Amino acid sequence: DDAIRPERGQRPDARQDPRLNWWRDAKFGMFIHWGLYAIPAGEWKGEKIPGIGEWIMYRARIPVREYEQLAREFNPVHFDAAAWVSLAKRAGQKYMVITAKHHDGFCLFKSAYTDYNIVDATPFGRDVLKELADECQKQDMKLGFYYSQTQDWHHPDGDGNDWDYDESKKDFAGYIEHYVKPQVRELLTNYGPVCLIWFDTPKGITADQSQALLELVHQLQPDCLVSGRLGNGLGDYASAGDNRIPQQRVDLDWETPATINDTWGYKKDDHNWKSTEELIHKLVDIVSKGGNYLLNVGPTAEGIIPQPSVERLEAMGAWLQINGESIYGTRPVQTPTPMQAASWCRLTAKPGKVYLHVFDWPAGGALPIAGLPVTGAHLLADPDRTPLLIRDAPDGITVQGPTAPPDPVDTVVVLDVAG
Ligand code: H79
338-417: what CATH class? Predict the structure, then answer.
């Protein structure tokens, strides 16, 4: 299964590290891709540019001197850190990760190492990361920073831009040493506690460079985690591919970063929104396999999170209000049961309990259970915990639920299990 490639893997000594405990319990986070690309929003000089919105500079081979003019227009007067953080809260998300610097090189934070940042280069002039950091402290939300450590299409020595710069003249090592490291230091010094740094696209980074970044992060903030895309298998946790979900349980700490539509950065003509049902099923599927779901929003250039994203996140939060016990703090079921390969259900577990997530409610409500030592059952949404009838069956037992699905998206049945 190549959903998690080795170079995006987890350091073996991080597997049992208690620094990850909050992250192992969190399961659900908000990713925010926000930058200058929200202005063209998928269109350049009247032409629709295919692909993901934040890649427009690359796909249209926009010269640095042209693209950087966008900064003069960036004035997101509707940006409201409190609104973004409270949306994540309502959605049931336990951490947020925002693009401090994406591949286009523009910095959403005040930096001493480039003027190409939101404070020095835009009419807006406010440090968005600072406002979010303060608001996250207020609302007790964890905050992490995405930082593109290899690709930087603006910096002459960063990876990726071969239309403005001569690849053979690039000093990538110097870029890591004199630009990436100092900026990571800024991010971990100026914004209070940072829960994680989300490095991306490990292509081209040496093991020594990855190791040095890992040590720098841990030296500055020992509790700050590092994503698997640091490279060379050195991350604190592993990373699946974008929008990729492994076929089976993975015995690592891992995360799927994913989009609600088909882009990360805002694109005005991407209306391909996944349904709430699909998003909840993906969350449950990922959690049942031992992963976290980092679900993206792409705010507009005005600072607004698109309404279809808001609606879906709120609906997920409403489902989690009722069913959160079967998600947060759970672990995958370790004992192999044929139910793990069944498409109608997923399993999550806590000591003494297995949560049976029923995606497709069987006609008549008889739920076939195999391979689990069940001693009792009730519906998670039932405050009275009325016991469900259990019958013996040829391949295990049958739990008799109501005839009609109590929740057409995912009804959670709590199974009490021995051991
Ligand atoms: O930040 C998000 C993406 O921008 C970033 N990772 C997530 C979290 C990412 N970096 N690289 N990729 C994703 C792979 C991108 C591949 C493609 Fe393309 C970009 C396919 C289409 C546009 C490069 C340019 C390959 C074809 C054209």
Answer: mainly beta
Domain residue ranges in the chain = 6-326, 338-417
Average pLDDT over residues 318-324: 98
In angstroms, the Cα distances linking 327 to 40, 69, 240, 322, 419 are 38, 45, 19, 11, 20
Report the C-alpha gap between 342 and 390 in whole angstroms.
Answer: 20
CATH fold of 6-326 reads TIM Barrel (3.20.20)
Return mean pLDDT, the chain: 97
Is residue 145 predicted with pLDDT exceeding 80?
Answer: yes
For a ligand 1 pocket test, name from 242, 255, 263 the mutation site with the most ligand atoms within 8 angstroms of its C-beta.
Answer: 242
Q: For ligand 1, say whether the CB of 255 is within 6 Å of any of its atoms.
A: no
* Cα R_g (the chain), whole angstroms: 23
6-326 against 338-417: fold identical: no
Strand-pair category, 238-239 with 225-226: unpaired
106: number of Cβ within 10 Å: 28
The pLDDT of residue 391 is: 97
Q: Which two tokens stand for residue 167?
A: 């690849």
